[in-house]
Specification:
The chain has 284 residues and is an alpha+beta fold. It contains eight helices and nine strands. Helix 3 packs across helix 8.
């Protein structure tokens, strides 16, 4: 049997969407940004319950990744990307994150890449993410670090030439698979936690090199004192979240519908304990 490819080109788009990547060449000039605030009352309870059940390292990061995957299950257009000024879609979901060896100014950064699917639950994400972290602790220099180290030692002129060559190969879809597997620039989404740094969520840029069409950042929790109808005051906690997206992959109505669903899951993440009832397939 013929092996099914992980990516395929979408050929049934409206003419305008086929033209837009030629009007806006770069991903950064094509990005839109949105900021929203999520009520974390149920999210906090969900994380605490999972920790009590033995998932000691469970955090909002795991829930956000699982919520994104569940959103892709319903809205597969989020998993599209632009390559060679054409719109493509993925079957798998590649999530990238930057982590530090330790929380200090001198500690180096590295990138971990989690390959998963729309069918996953929070438990699946917890196990896969935990394995990545354990592997990194056993071998602090990742495949990406090793590749970056080799490239950074090259003379500047040679490195500029190689990067231009890589961009050309990327444009026509001929980058080596070994490079695609470690590259954080070729992913479905890049997620960063500002909460661990104690600062609000930032609006992160996209990368013009590669295929990553979305950046999600979430910030530290903040408290809000609100008034009940009876005049009593109660305290709630909220989390700021920002998304930067490549608008060339789908239209605004689709993005808005997907983001509302994503927020709905974050505000009631207990639905992530079971796989989705249906996984939609993107248009041909």
């Amino acid at each position: 049997m013929k092996k099914e490819k992980d990516v395929r080109r979408i050929k049934s788009l409206p003419p305008m969407m086929n033209l837009v990547p030629f009007i806006m060449d770069d991903r950064n000039e094509s990005c839109n940004r949105i900021h929203d605030t999520v009520n974390v009352t149920k999210l906090d309870r969900y994380v605490r319950e999972k920790q009590q059940q033995g998932m000691k390292n469970m955090s909002p990061m795991h829930v956000i990744i699982a919520a994104y995957c569940r959103t892709v299950a319903k809205y597969p257009g989020l998993n599209r990307f632009i390559r060679g000024q054409r719109v493509w879609t993925r079957r798998s979901i590649d999530v990238c994150m930057t982590i530090k060896q330790e929380m200090s100014l001198e500690a180096p950064d590295t990138v971990i890449k989690l390959r998963t699917s729309p069918e996953v639950t929070t438990g699946d994400i917890y196990k896969s993410f935990g394995k990545l972290i354990d592997d990194y602790r056993k071998n602090p220099e990742s495949d990406f670090d090793e590749t970056a180290s080799k490239l950074s030692r090259l003379p500047r002129i040679l490195l500029r030439f190689i990067m231009r060559l890589l961009r050309c190969l990327d444009y026509v879809g001929l980058l080596p698979k070994s490079l695609l597997e470690v590259s954080p620039f070729h992913s479905s989404v890049y997620i960063t936690s500002m909460g661990s740094l104690g600062i609000p969520a930032i609006y992160h840029h996209l990368y013009d090199f590669g295929t990553c069409p979305m950046f999600i950042a979430f910030g530290a929790y903040k408290r809000s004192y609100e008034v009940n109808p009876d005049g009593s005051v109660y305290k709630r906690r909220y989390m700021d979240i920002t998304l930067t997206v490549d608008e060339r992959t789908t239209d605004g109505y689709y993005y808005a519908s997907a983001f509302k669903y994503f927020k709905q899951i974050l505000q009631d993440p207990f639905v992530l304990d079971a796989p989705p009832e249906n996984v939609n397939v993107d248009i041909p």
